[in-house]
Amino acid sequence: MNQTITTIKTNALIPNPWNTNVVSPENQTKIEESVKRFGMFKPLVCRTLEDGRIEIIGGQHRWEAAVALGIEEVDIVNLGKIDDKKAKEISLVDNARYGSDDGIRLSELFHELDDIADYTPYTEADILKVFSSAEVDLDSLGTLDEEEKDLEKKVEDLTKSSPTYQVMRFKVPIGDAEFVQGIIDGIIKKQGFTSSDSLTNAGDALVFLCGKKNED
């Protein structure tokens, strides 16, 4: 398989019609924020079609962010004229995530970085889950109580900016957290609760879910 790295006009690329990787409007905004901060630091993966057009195999959402931000040129890795089957296989591999995060090391990384919820796929709930489930080195990282105080400060700030909302906090078993978050994220996407901050969107989804249960 011939591979060439080159720079190409952003509007010269086309997306493939079978991309299975879908992100919410909120996460697409985060992708755009990451591109603003770091640029297109990783080339898009593409192939050349029989008619000469260049089709994106991997990195479509970053390409969409580049288009939205008015970035005129991007770097690509062109795999040449590969067939549909091979292109789809590579697309699945490119979108897949083989590993999982080490909770302790991830929490350490979170401590070192700022505003990670603005430009990474992690939500406030994800971040709180990492801090609450990891066996953190209390001497070097501080206590979880301090982390909760930081979160409470953020909650207070959000409450002041949204006086029509009341902040409610819940704890769920660690084993159920991913399931609960998936339900909330699904409602947010399906009902279009994406116009506010992540906490407000999640609250709107919870209210919708409770209302639907009452109807049943």
Task: Write structural notes for this entry.
The chain is 54% helix and 12% strand. It has 216 residues and is of the alpha/beta class. The protein has two domains: 4-95, Conserved hypothetical protein from pyrococcus furiosus pfu- 392566-001, ParB domain (Alpha-Beta Complex), CATH 3.90.1530.10; 103-215, no CATH class. A five-stranded mixed beta sheet has the order 1-5-3-4-2. Helix 1 (25-38) packs across helix 2 and helix 4 (103-112) packs across helix 6. The N and C termini lie far apart (56 Å).
Short description:
Helices cover 54% and strands 12% of the residues.
Mean pLDDT: 81
Shape: elongated
Q: DSSP helix count? A: 10
Q: Kindly estimate the percentage of residues that lie in beta strands according to DSSP.
A: 5-15%
The secondary-structure element order is EEHEEHEHHHHHHHH
Range of helix content? 40-55%
Largest sheet: 5 strands, mixed
Count structural domains: 2
Structural class: alpha/beta
Total E-strand runs = 5
Q: Layout of SSEs?
A:
Elements: E1 4-9, E2 13-15, H1 25-38, E3 44-48, E4 54-58, H2 60-68, E5 73-78, H3 84-95, H4 103-112, H5 116-119, H6 124-133, H7 138-141, H8 144-161, H9 174-191, H10 198-215
Parallel strand pairs: 2-4, 3-5
Antiparallel strand pairs: 1-5, 3-4
Helix pairs in contact: 1-2, 4-6, 9-10
Features:
216 residues, alpha/beta, Conserved hypothetical protein from pyrococcus furiosus pfu- 392566-001, ParB domain, 2 domains, 5-stranded mixed beta sheet, 10 helices, 5 strands
